[in-house]
Amino acid sequence: MTRVTLAQQLAASLVEQIGNGTYRAGDRLPSLRECMRLFGHSKNTVINAYESLASQGLVEARHGLGFFVRPGAPATHESDDPLPYARAMDTVWLMRQQFVREPGQSPLGEGFPPVDWLMDMRLDKFTRQIMRTGVSTLFRYGNRLGNAGLRQHLVQKLASYSISATPRQIVTTHGANHALDLIVRRFVAPGDTVLVEDPGYYPLFGKLQLQGARMLPVPRLPDGPDIQVLEQHLRLHKPKLFFIQSVGHNPTGSDISPGVAHRLVQLAQAHNFILVDDDALADFKPASAIKVSALDQLRHSLYVGSFSKSVSAALRVGFIAGSKELIDELGDLKMLLHTSSSEFCERTVDVILMEGHFLRHLIRLQERLKAATTAGLQMLDEIGAQVFCRPEQSLYLWARFKHIDDARELTRQLLPKGFMIAPGHIFSPEQSRINPWTRLNVAYLNDPLLMAIFKDT
Questions:
Q1: Which pTM value belongs to this model?
Q2: For the chain, how many structural domains are there in total?
Q3: Cross-strand partners of 306
């Protein structure tokens, strides 16, 4: 078997992005330094990749300016791509761009709340508390299902959402992304049909591509997934899973309606597929917000939770709740792949949940979010933007701007002015489609400079 070099992997990723329109004729590719930073490759690796593209006639070097996509660069086709890894690299590239913030750049498209919204958690205080008790357990692997104390607190947290579970129905993970990865590995084989929301959570699309799954998009409407399209898919295919977000949907900020949620549960029971309810933003919403996993009571659903956005992404603590049988299987898979999750991080979250301070933190967090959402919607109204829905409180708003047909062009216009946005095409499983929508983080939206830029356009 011929070994694929890092330069070849990078070149394959760039070929795919040229083919799907991420980079179009005349566009400049990232500089050598930018590409080295984004991918962690050496300078020689990047040079070899770019020279490979030049030898294929896809790009041309312009002295002192960089590499540019040549006119007439051919589109790529999935059948020409021999590696699932290469198909997933678009998502990896986009994730690197999302996670790296340039100095002085407004992270308008960022997926996280501002750090100052979370600083009142005082993680150093909890660390000292953990070190004072049970230090010896921190030097050993933890339970395959996760810290027992934390799982007991998660039972109480789920009960506040009207989801009944026992500690044996919960397995902890390294955040929600790790939870989704375990679920994909357990239930999806190459060629399997899986339902996803469109627009939806783009790192999930990369995981499914890597696994060789066949994704069927279900349009996301302001009140949840399009039931009519879903029923059409169910008549023609036999999907194993449907990945959804009941509330605080990423990227649209929409919440599912009771009617749609009840119908989803009925369809899951009738067609025997699993609803994967990704609820990573639960702490930003009232506990009473409806969730399909609460209606289903984990019979045909798996609930995914996380503390990355409400406490700290650095802790990497999430969890999956489901039937005891499925959680046992996912716990075994977790042990096989990772031995265990972090006892130290999980005990930190356990101590945080014991403190009444955490509830006060969530109240402040939701108050800030509600105020930012109101201000963001007002700003978008003033500049004449169209919004997908008007949530009372949501970390994200999904919007399109006047005279913008392709949000990628808006991205190119705003970057030199210091604003990084998340263009709509990256949130679709079919990323080659032109998309006028963009995801906006409400915490950074009410910016006078941004308003002035749009009023001048």
A1: 0.80
A2: 3
A3: 318
